[in-house]
Give the backbone structure.
Amino acid sequence: MAQLFCMIRVLCFGMILLCAHLGAAQRVTVYLDGQPTTEVPGMDSVEVSRFVNLYLLRLWNQGFVFSGLDSVFSDRIYFHAGEKYRNEIDQLAVYDAEQDTFQLWKPKKQSFQSAVQKQLTTYADKGHPFVRITWDSVQVKDDMAKGFLRIIPGPLVVYDSMVLLGEVQKGRAFLQTALHLEVDKPFSERTFQNLPKSIARLQYLEMKRPPDVAFEHGKATVFLDLDKRKSSSFEGVVGLLPGQSAGNGVMVTGFLDLQLANLFQSGKRFLFTWNRFADESQSLDLGYYHPFFLSSKLFLDVDFHLLKQDTTFLTQSWNLTSGTNIGPMSEVFFGYEHVSGTLISPDESNISDNLADFTSSQYMIGLRDVLYGQEMGMKSPFRYQVRLVLGEKNISKNPSIDKGAYDTLHRQTSMLRVTAGAKYLIRLKKRTALHHHCEGQLLVNDQILTNELARIGGLKTLRGFNENFFYASNYALSRLEIRQYFEEYSHFMLFYDQLLMEHRGVVSYPRGFGAGLSLDTSNGLFTFALAMGMSRQIPADPANIKIHIGYTSKF
């Protein structure tokens, strides 16, 4: 009978809170003994449940051991305080589902309240959104009240269905998996609250208004109002480099980038990038991304990279990466990469220039923000990535080069590479912001070859220089911009790029500065930058000004 009475109270409590859900968009006034005490933002039913628990816990800690909830409306909540006592709460009764009984637990006194909050959060994330706390076995003597707190889980709630209200109707099965809303899975308050971030990470969807949820007979129905977002893109960049081609004419470089997102309505992606950055020099990148590989929580990413440097060398790499989400916007990844370098026109001078044929096997692990590579708008948060690579490298003898030339080389070595990057925005005024993008690399190896170094220069790295102009084993790059926004992703900018780099034991500090424009339209993003670069060998000269023009078409 006692258990039946308890269940009836929990169900009634849940129905009252469900009514509060209707007022989630307005302010809620909290009354204690008929007097308004505070005003809080509108809450849904689960948020009201959490608020009531924490509000009562605070009153009990103040000595109002018989305080309680009176009623809940869409715009107000009523509590009563009761008489105040000196109270002593030192035990917590936690429900053990396997034993179907309550177990007494005695947290440390200084962390009792945080322990209670942690237990409430755990229940809310494991299918019990209407968990509540109550006094149990209260004993009053004079002005002292003793007892312990009991956590009552309430009914188990599981996901039942997902209702799509906007134009997005396809890919429902993938969407439920990506948002962790699978049918019959226990409801999680944390998952529900993180839905806006989880949808933002998909990149091809946008949320028109906050998500909604309805509870009925132990089932949760989630309502999502979504629109399609243009996430596939085609980008073309043209660079004009005066005096760089044969005959001192203007050399035109090219960059093409094709990204196809949400293939087959299943979140898969395909990448194609081609870059002609100098005479007879170009690079090619191919990539394929597969989320929830074999119905697991792991993604699979396969990438191929090819770099041809004039008639000197050719570098190829295959990369297989997997990983999983560890938060709404973060993922941990690990993988394997095979890299091979080949001399195109081999001779003994290559060895003195630290050029050689090689192969390397590398294993990596890292952590990154899923939106690290995306353009940052006025409201974009901090983004980051970090990667650790360990591997072995073998230098091969080329039959066209005398074997004695290899005597001074360490042919079999171990290597360590650490790369990291961060992006953040500091608002200076309403539409003025300081944007900073910094990245760097540390390479440790007993035989560092030129044809395995990082390449820096161009619109996406160090502006004011040719694409891939610099070779660096270790470097730190800072891209600082003052942006004047006139739309979320449209802005004028003044920029200063500073590079600290090391190549063959020589440290240098090339830099570039200039101005530009980024214009976000309904069909794409137009980018224009006018930049001048300076280094130890290249003085500031108007004749060396670089003009970067690019347009990313979205579809």
